[in-house]
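task queued by scheduler; priority normal; single chain, no ligands, no partner chains; default sampling; output format set to structure tokens
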Amino acid sequence: MPGLEIRPTSDRLRETLFDVLTAGNPDALVGSVWLDLYAGTGTVGIEAVSRGAAMVYFVESSRRAAEIIHHNLRELPIASGVEVLMRDANAALRELDGKRAQADFIFLDPPYRARDAYRGTLLRLSELALSKTAVVIAEHDKKFDPGEEFGSLKRTRTLEQGDQALSFYRRG
């Protein structure tokens, strides 16, 4: 999109992500709750809905990107089990924590140049009451290492594909 700094997760990387999450159990996402932080166009959260997620919270601070998410949801059409929160990730996490929303999967994909956002968001996530089995996935440039450990979150796996990588975190 002209004028927007949206870098949607590539189809191939998104497919790899969901293959990993459903390996051995194609119904692993059915009934799950997702946070799609720095959602951009919402492709990851929309894929989660298509694979049976019960609820997806799309968090995006850009008004234009949030409008794109709303447009994409209408076009599909997806009307239930989704909420678009137009605010920054930390404000959204405070709000969701106050509602006691426990996510099973948290996907974050800050702009690659905003490297501090990884650390801040992962530290904040480590302080929240995540479900015991919650998986946090950070998409990042493969030349950038967001870190091994953030409070109670510890990296369990890294997958590289092309110039991108996914780091998976769980409670230690």
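post-processing summary
- The beta strands are 33-37, 55-59, 82-85, 105-108, 135-141, 149-150, 153-161, 164-171.
- The radius of gyration is 15 Å.
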